[in-house]
Write a structure and sequence with these properties.
By secondary structure, the protein is α/β, with parallel strands linked by helices. Helices cover 32% and strands 23% of the residues. It has three domains: 181 residues, FAD/NAD(P)-binding domain, CATH 3.50.50; 161 residues, Protoporphyrinogen oxidase, mitochondrial, domain 2 (Polyamine Oxidase, Chain A, domain 2), CATH 3.90.660.20; 97 residues, no CATH class. Bound molecules: flavin-adenine dinucleotide. The site of flavin-adenine dinucleotide (FAD) has 36 residues, from helix 1, strand 2, strand 18, helix 12 and helix 13.
């Protein structure tokens, strides 16, 4: 059995753990160790090569960030030709047609009279918005977009994505995550000028030229050095009092534990945590995501040739999002020009008994019927994966639960960060996770305050500025 002690132990080699390790190394700290349960780095941001030679990510994964220091890091760790830069082209599949994203800016493309009813409902919402103070996400959607746009896109899409009643979701997270209403853009569309489809920080994004999204994590892991990374080491227990974590191969003592283990699991594994914190951790809600990759021979239809993704609000498609992965990088397929690839995402409630991949047949039927895929004979590879923790749900009780758990962990030198470490979807992308790792290391070593984890995208604040 191993027994060792480290100034910093890092749980998980996903973007958060790698960011923490990268930062410690940059600060000149040598006494740190990353314990990762899988055999490779990357976590949810990993990529996989299937036996047929197709590269798959765990759902749509692209790099974009509004954090300047992250943008500096991701270009300095790798060689100049590592990244390909893309302009996002995203669409909503609505009643047999493609509507550019964001939906509300393109309602002029809806059939008459639906375009008019949607427009009137957006206007009414804009006039009444100042008088409303939404209590939950459904009320927020209605007050922001009006009943018609909500009914046709936002409500069905969000129900599909979150598999959670929207009345049970909070509003604090929406700030930068949901496209706002811009009446000028909407009017522009009606006057036949091209309406702006460029909303969002991910209008331009980066994607590795080779190896899929996970190639960036592999590059960071390489820069940290194998001596600081231990793979196949699943933490099964944390002893608060002794400050020791246990894996199947041994015990590791720590001064500080920086963890990206999903917070509900971390609390379950932690001996010595109060009953109140344990109870709060059982309130945290999440979705699982099933991903199906379909490798195809031939070429995509011409209207599917842009890098970007499609949203599917309708019940007839089992998936909520689709991307042509081979448009992100031709190196994601074995024979560029002769093969191409589609990646589908399906949301599940945890404990849903469907097998990952159960949706393959109905998905394929849908894709063939709507002209995305020529026929079944063109399928040359199928890849399936479930992310048991896919999306941390920003539900109404979340922040109360986090206020119970996080201070108690920190008082015991456990710093839970990252997508499921903080449980904050609003700071749950790979840039946020990576920078939370960087910043918690800086705080612990030199006292510099964190900004990403401390940042709050409060809906009331963004509501005031709009
Ligand atoms: C479908 C989908 C699409 C996404 N698209 C994007 C996108 O386009 N752009 C973007 O920026 N972000 C995207 N994200 C978010 C991105 O995946 C996360 O931000 C990022 O992976 C979070 O990093 P993390 O280190 O916090 O967590 P994770 O990636 O979950 O890493 C946690 C690591 O901890 C390990 N671990 C867990 N438990 C233990 C244990 N007990 N012992 C040891 N190790 C353990 C895991 O194996 C894992 O390697 C997407 C996420 C999903 C699910």
């Amino acid at each position: 059995m191993t027994t060792s002690h480290h100034r910093f132990l890092i749980a998980g080699a996903g973007p958060m753990g790698l960011g923490a390790a990268f930062s410690l190394k940059r600060l000149g700290v040598e006494d740190f160790l990353v314990l990762e349960k899988d055999q490779t780095a990357g976590g949810l941001a990993s990529s996989f090569l299937d036996p047929q030679g197709f590269v798959w990510d765990i759902g749509v994964h692209v790099h974009y960030s509004e954090i300047p220091s992250y943008n500096d890091i991701i270009t300095s760790v790798v060689a100049g030709d590592f990244w390909a830069r893309h302009l996002r082209q995203s669409w909503i599949w609505f009643r047999e047609r493609r509507i550019p994203f964001p939906f509300q800016n393109h309602i002029h493309q809806l059939p008459f009279p639906l375009n008019m009813t949607c427009f009137v409902s957006l206007l009414r919402a804009a006039i009444k918005r100042k008088e409303t103070s939404p209590r939950h996400f459904k009320e927020w959607v209605l007050s922001e977009y009006g009943a018609e746009v909500a009914r046709h896109f936002f409500i069905p899409y969000n129900l599909k994505l979150w598999v959670t009643p929207l009345e049970e979701m909070a509003t604090e997270w929406v700030g930068k995550r949901v496209a706002p209403v811009d009446l000028v853009q909407i009017m522009k569309g009606f006057f036949q000028k091209p309406a702006d489809s460029g909303w969002g920080g991910n209008r331009h994004f980066l994607y590795p030229q080779k190896g899929g999204n996970g190639q960036f994590c592999n590059a960071v892991a390489h820069s940290i050095g194998a001596g600081h990374l231990r793979f196949g080491e699943a933490i099964t227990n944390v002893d608060l009092r002794k400050k020791v974590v246990t894996t199947p191969t041994g015990d590791y003592g720590f001064d500080h534990l920086i963890s990206s283990i999903p917070l509900d699991e971390l609390c379950r594994q932690t001996d010595g945590l109060s009953e109140a914190a344990q109870r709060a951790s059982r309130q945290l809600r999440f979705t699982s995501v099933d991903v199906i990759g379909i490798g195809l021979k031939g070429q995509p239809p011409s209207w599917l040739s842009e890098p970007g993704w499609f949203y599917f609000p309708g019940a007839e498609a089992p998936f909520y999002r689709l991307i042509v992965q081979s448009n992100l990088s031709p190196a994601c397929v074995p024979r560029p020009g002769e093969t191409w690839s589609l990646l589908l995402e399906m949301a599940r409630r945890p404990g849903d008994s469907r097998e990952d991949g159960d949706d393959l047949r109905p998905s394929l039927q849908f894709l063939i019927q709507k002209g995305f895929v020529r026929d079944e004979a063109s399928v040359v590879s199928v890849w399936k994966r479930r992310a048991p923790h896919g999306y941390p749900v920003p539900h109404v009780d979340r922040d109360g639960a986090l206020r119970r758990i996080m201070p108690e962990l920190e008082a015991n030198h456990i710093f839970s960060r990252g997508r499921f470490g903080t449980w904050k979807y609003e700071i749950g992308n790979q840039d946020h996770a990576f920078m939370q790792g960087v910043e918690i290391s800086e705080r612990l070593v030199s006292g510099k305050p964190e900004t990403v984890y401390a940042e709050k995208s409060l809906m009331s604040e963004s509501g005031k500025t709009r």
